[in-house]
Amino acid sequence: MLASQAGMSCARSLGWAAGSLGIVIVGSSASWATASGLTVDGSDDEVVAALAIVAAVALGVFALTRRSWLTGVALLAALASVALIGHDLKDPAGPFGGPGPNIHLQWGIWVALAGSIGLALASVGQLVDTSRHAGKALGLQTPVLGSFSDDAVVKDVAKRLGRPGEQGADLLVTLAEQLRAKAAGRLVEELTPVRELDYPRHSIKLVVSSPEIAKRLGSVEKEPFTVEWIERSVRASDVFYDVGANVGAYSLIAAKVTRNRAKVFAFEPAAPSFRDLARNVLLNDCAESVVPLPFALWSKTGLLSLTFRSVSPGASRHRVSGELGPDKPLTETIVGIRLDDLVERFGVPVPTHAKIDVDGYELEVLRGARRTLARPEWRSIIVELDPEETPRNRAVKTLLADAGFDRGLRHARLPSRRYPHPEERPDVYWTFTRRPRQPGSRSLRSWTRASTPATP
Q1: Taking the CA atoms of the chain, what radius of gyration do you get in angstroms?
Q2: Which has more confidence, 318 or 150?
Q3: Is residue 143 scored above 50 in pLDDT?
Q4: What is the reported pLDDT for 428?
Q5: Burial class (CB in 10 A: 0-12, 13-18, 19+), 412
Q6: Which of 56, 220, 247, 290 is the 20 to 30 A CA-CA neighbour of 214?
Q7: Which has the higher per-residue pLDDT, 201 or 134?
Q8: Prediction pTM value
């Protein structure tokens, strides 16, 4: 739409410039003929007068529709031309009343000619100015008409991308549609817009690959209690599990607060979000600490079906099922693995702390971690539960209590700029901490011997 408006404006300016040039040519020829006495008969004077009046009217219209210093010149020339030509048209000795010098007619024509030259200059100036505006409307800007330098293109595209709203995204979509496949692929590969996470203690950048990422950039404001728990609990040499990591905001916070000296395992089965998770780890130089894992922790090891709410990176509230069944829209097959199997069969370290936020499937994750939950190394866990005391909540609390954790602490949500009504949110978070070991309980060594599977 912006391009079409710019094109229409350019066309109007071209029309003004062409019309002005025509008036200059005709007016100058007629004026020279009249001043030189080359008219054949009185009818030629009538034609000359008519042409001069046309020039005067054109000048008047231009003066009313344009704003420039030449507008005043054009308006004065139009008024003067009409006055002078009109004087001779009413003069009995003029061209319509008999022989005469027609001096006023000649002056009027010359004044119209001068005004026409001003009209042409102003129209050319308008054309140049309109071309610049057209370049801006298309995301291109250059000080020289007709020449778009690479630097100008880069700067103005970047400026458009920085504007609020979706104009910048629309520009990129339009640009990508015009490129060949190889160039479009290179654009996607090289273009990596990033923004800062709202974490004041450390600089953490997230790849902005979809509108959903805007919510992830406010992860600290969304869950300040989670961030406080990470800062208070996770230390160097600890093992932190981020179950349902999405694009990795809290995994990166855990890595940064420990200066990459904690081991962070970030679990995210949704392919679009996992891709951004892996990129964010590299972007923030956290590959030494954060290990992205593209599968779901579940109550049993095997294949699962994941139905996307949205395929955009950063999206959440996907549906997971143990039944593969017939094909469904936006559904893919993923790998599910029990946390106990991950530790016992694959040698992944036991978590010291874990965050489990999997949109309603937290109980499935914990059921697959019964033996590991009883390990004394696992000291605390923050988990998403229902706002009301539901059977799912009671099952989670019972399972954790049986594993040696306390009754839990519910975190209160406070109003904030982005979330002014926390009471309307459908989720709450609880922290559970391992109870101190009672006298007479098994030592870690005896527990390890008892829990280690016997070898055939």
Answers
A1: 39
A2: 318
A3: no
A4: 93
A5: exposed
A6: 290
A7: 201
A8: 0.63
How do strand 205-207 and strand 194-196 relate by DSSP bridges?
A: antiparallel
Burial of 126 (0-12, 13-18, 19+ CB in 10 A): buried
Residue 389 pLDDT greater than 70, yes or no: yes
d(CA 180, CA 187): 10
| DSSP helix/strand/coil, 429 | strand
**Rounded Cα gap, residues 341 and 299, in angstroms:** 10
pLDDT of 287 over the 50 cut: yes
User: How far apart, in whole angstroms, are the C-alpha atoms of residue 310 and residue 271?
Assistant: 11
Say how far apart CA 312 and CA 275 lie, in whole Å.
11
Nearest residue to 57 (alpha-carbon basis) of 75, 32, 42: 75
CA-CA distance, 414 to 102, in Å (whole number)? 89
- Count of residues for the chain? 456
Residue 395: partners with Cβ closer than 8 Å, 6 or more residues away: 363
What DSSP element (H or E) covers 264?
A: strand 263-267
pLDDT computed for residue 105 by the predictor: 53
Please spell the DSSP secondary structure of 270-305, one letter per residue. Answer: -HHHHHHHHHHHHHTT-TTTEEEE-SEE-SSSEEEE
| Assigned token pair, 264 | 């962070």
Q: Measured between alpha carbons, how far is 297 from 383 in angstroms, rounded to an integer?
A: 14
Mean pLDDT of the chain: 76
**Residue 142: per-residue pLDDT:** 45
For residue 454, the tally of other CB atoms under 10 A from its CB is 4
**Residue in the block written with tokens 């902005």:** 208
Residues 324, 407: Cα–Cα separation, whole Å: 36
> What confidence score (pLDDT) does residue 349 get?
97
3-state secondary structure of 389: coil
Strands 319-321 and 290-293, bridge-based pairing: unpaired
Crossing angle of helices 224-233 and 249-257, in 10° steps, is 30
Strand order in the sheet with 296-297: 296-297, 331-337, 302-307, 319-321
> pLDDT tier at 437 (50, 70, 90 boundaries)?
confident
